[in-house]
Structures are given as structure tokens and as C-alpha cells.
Write a structure and sequence with these properties.
alpha+beta
Length: 430
């Protein structure tokens, strides 16, 4: 983990939050490369789970909702963690992570008995704090979908079974944080609520979605053999869940939850149906009857997915006695697809020609320009950034209009005509 954290800061994937002021625990900012990687993963998810399916539509809901939403959903009452507190350093921990120990893992002092703490962040709407409306930053994105269920039905022609997908920020007042971006107080989620009839065989739909989720590993370059389905017992499930499977991944620090899928029954829509006074029943024209749909919910943590991808892609190799660090990211999610170098930065003709190539390539792919230091260091810098291909413009380029194309994973090089570059890279980067 230390090597991955170091690489992330060095190459601009992830920075510590508020670092110039001493930092803020369990908060992070995504740098230039991290932003591109994050967007690429989100886009791959959106295409696979929403755009490629005829039975899916999308939503982009707000972070702040009416407090009545959280009362109806049960979060105000139920969204609490059992925690223990150190009597000396006053840090709090989840008992299930302490393996039965009664001592603080930080300072070895005694811990208090478990108490319940709210996992939601409160905020106030209004210019005067005492007169404002108290509400919460959303701890999940799912409720946006439930409260917009009727709107989606009224504004589209979609019929059950169908799903609504959403990506966005969520906030949890996590006490046990750590392992870099694995557990933070502010994070991105990608969630689906898939609506089915009460008469549908929900177990089959559940298992179909579970299988579909596993296939997503191939799209973003994760090893599916490292993904493990963990059946969650009733006493550990969320208050709304009839069945939950957590998909654990083999991170460098051990197996832990990456994604999850839950059968929420008709819990949420029924609660909002009653609390809001709005009719959230679905009218089945084929069966000529009304009912409250049931829901299957696949959910994904963006930040955890990024961590899994970086962990899997990180490689150290020995090349001619030197250590080479390389991120073998799948090309479709790599932040930069191509880098262009002039062999020598102090030769105007080479620089001009390299700029010509750069301008051609950047119209088709996200492309980096680098003319610092020697060519070997530039290659290694792009290896750490996960860039699949580097193009070097040398003196032969001025003679025959060919460039050297270097493959990140194999380090093999070949000469390609400039006029053939786009087709060549298109085929390689598919």
C-alpha cells in the first residue's frame, strides 16, 4: 500500500486532502491523472450498466434532500454504528474490526462499552442557523432514485422490469477510516435500483445481476479470480435488505468489500408511498393491476474500484539491473493513451516535427507531451502513469516520416509511418 500511495502522489493520481494545512483525515483529492482515471472508470460503468441495456435509464440526483426522505427511509433511526471509544486518546472504532480486543489499537488504552453513533452528516438549510431546516448530506444515492420513481415513469415509456442508474457523491461520518481511499468520509458511488414485480422470481434476477457484475471486472481490467461473493447473514444486513451479497476483493491489505448487491424488497417505495401521500404504485397494463415494485440493488464504490484497479495494475520489474515501476492499466481506462517525445529537446527540427505528430494524435486520443530529461527517464515516467504507448520523433523521422512506437507492457519498439499512426493506435487501444 505504501508504494501505491507514494506513486499516486508522485504522478498526480491522488493527493492528501487539505495538505498545505496539515491535512484532514480520510479526505483526498484526485490529481490530473486520477481525475482522468476516475472519469474513465465511471464512463465504462455507465456504458456497461446503463447505456448498453435497453432496460436501464439514468438519473443525476441532488446531494441534499428533504429531511422527510431520511425519516421515511429509516436512516434517521437505523443508520447508526455501534462504536467503542478509547478512554485516553478518544478515537472511536467499530467493535467488529477489533477482533474481540478491549484495548485501543492506537495507544493500547482501555476502550469504553459500545455506543450507537449516527453515520450521517447534519447540515442546515437557511441563512440563519437557528431558524434553518436541519437535514443531512446523503449517505447513499439510492433515495434519489426512489423519490423520483414516479417522475421517471411519467416522463418515459419504460416498463417493469427496468432499472435506474446513478453516479454521485455520498457522505458518511465514518469512524473507522483508513487504507488510503478505501474508506473515506466523502466518496463516489455508482448505484442501480432495478424494479421488478412482486411475482417475479427475485432470486433469479438477483443471481443474473450478480453474474453481470462479475463480468464488469474484465471491462476495467480487474482479475475476477480475486473477487469473492460473501453472503451476509440476517443480523449483519442493512435494515431494508432481505438478502445481501458483498463482493470482496483481494486488496494489498487483505480481502474487503469492493461492491455489493442487495434485495431491498418493496421497503423503500412502500415507506415513501405512505410518508409522502403520493401514489407510488406501478400500473401493470398487461396484468391490469397495481402494485408496489420490489427492488434489486447493485452498488459500487468508485474510490474502492480505483484502488483495486491501481493495486492490480502496479508492477515492479528489473530491467538491466534497474527497477522499473509500471502501471499496466487496461488501455480503455488509462488516463493518458499516448505520449509524444522529441528525441532531443534542444534540436528545433525534431521539436517542430514532434509537435506536428502531437497535434495529429491528440485529436483522437488524450495525449501527453514530454521533452524533459533523457528519453529513458521519460519512458519510465510514462510507465508509472500507465500510458500504453510512447511515440519518439528522432532524426530518422525527418528522413522517412516514421516514428518509434514503444509498448508500455513489453517495452518493444517498432517503426510506424506517421500517416498510419491513427489506425495503428486505434487497433492497439481497442
Amino acid at each position: 500500500m505504501e508504494k501505491i500511495v507514494s506513486l499516486c502522489k508522485r504522478r498526480g493520481f491522488v493527493y492528501p486532502g487539505s495538505e498545505i494545512y496539515g491535512g484532514l483525515a480520510s479526505t483526498y483529492d484526485y490529481g490530473p491523472l486520477g481525475t482522468e482515471l476516475k472519469n474513465n472508470i465511471r464512463q465504462a460503468w455507465w456504458k456497461y450498466f446503463v447505456q448498453d441495456r435497453q432496460d436501464m435509464v439514468g438519473l443525476d440526483g441532488g446531494i441534499i434532500l428533504s429531511p422527510k426522505v431520511w425519516e421515511a427511509s429509516g436512516h434517521v433511526k437505523e443508520f447508526k454504528d455501534s462504536l467503542v471509544e478509547c478512554k485516553k486518546c478518544h478515537k472511536r472504532f467499530r467493535p467488529d474490526k477489533l477482533e474481540g480486543s478491549s484495548k485501543c489499537p492506537e495507544c493500547n488504552s482501555l476502550l469504553t462499552k459500545p455506543k450507537l453513533f449516527s453515520g450521517m452528516f447534519k447540515t442546515i438549510i437557511g441563512p440563519v442557523e437557528k431558524e434553518g431546516i436541519v437535514t443531512y448530506l446523503r449517505p447513499e444515492t439510492a433515495q434519489n432514485i426512489f423519490i423520483n420513481f414516479k417522475n421517471v415513469l411519467d416522463s418515459t415509456n419504460i416498463k417493469i422490469p427496468f432499472g435506474i442508474g446513478q453516479m454521485g457523491k455520498a457522505f458518511r461520518n465514518e469512524i473507522t477510516t483508513g487504507n488510503f481511499v478505501f474508506r473515506t468520509i466523502e466518496f463516489d458511488m455508482m448505484e442501480i435500483e432495478y424494479f421488478i414485480s412482486p411475482n417475479t422470481d427475485w432470486k433469479k434476477v438477483f443471481n443474473d445481476w450478480l453474474e453481470y457484475i462479475h463480468k464488469f471486472t474484465k471491462i476495467i481490467g480487474l482479475d475476477n479470480k480475486k473477487l469473492h461473493d460473501i453472503e451476509i447473514p440476517k443480523e449483519d444486513r442493512a435494515h431494508y435488505s432481505e438478502r445481501t451479497v458483498d463482493l470482496y476483493y483481494e486488496f494489498p491489505f487483505g480481502k474487503d468489500e469492493l461492491w455489493a448487491i442487495a434485495y431491498r424488497t418493496d421497503y423503500d417505495l412502500t415507506r415513501h408511498h405512505k410518508a409522502s401521500g403520493q401514489n407510488l404504485e406501478y400500473f401493470d397494463r398487461d396484468g391490469n393491476k397495481k402494485y408496489i415494485p420490489h427492488v434489486i440493488e447493485p452498488t459500487f464504490g468508485v474510490d474502492r474500484t480505483i484502488l483495486a484497479v491501481l493495486s492490480d495494475a502496479y508492477h515492479e520489474e528489473k530491467v538491466k539491473g534497474e527497477k522499473r515501476i509500471v502501471l499496466k492499466l487496461k488501455p480503455n481506462i488509462a488516463p493518458i493513451k499516448v505520449a509524444v517525445f522529441p528525441l532531443l529537446a534542444n534540436k528545433p527540427k525534431l521539436v517542430r516535427k514532434a509537435k506536428e505528430v502531437y497535434n495529429i494524435v491528440k485529436k483522437n486520443f488524450l495525449t501527453a507531451w514530454d521533452d524533459r530529461g533523457n528519453i529513458g527517464k521519460r519512458y519510465y515516467a510514462q510507465d508509472e502513469a500507465g500510458t500504453p504507448y510512447c511515440l519518439t520523433i528522432d532524426f530518422d523521422t525527418l528522413k522517412d516520416d516514421t516514428v518509434t512506437v514503444r509498448d508500455r507492457d513489453t517495452m518493444k519498439q517498432e517503426r510506424i509511418k506517421i500517416k498510419e499512426l491513427i489506425n495503428y493506435l486505434n487497433n492497439k487501444l481497442k
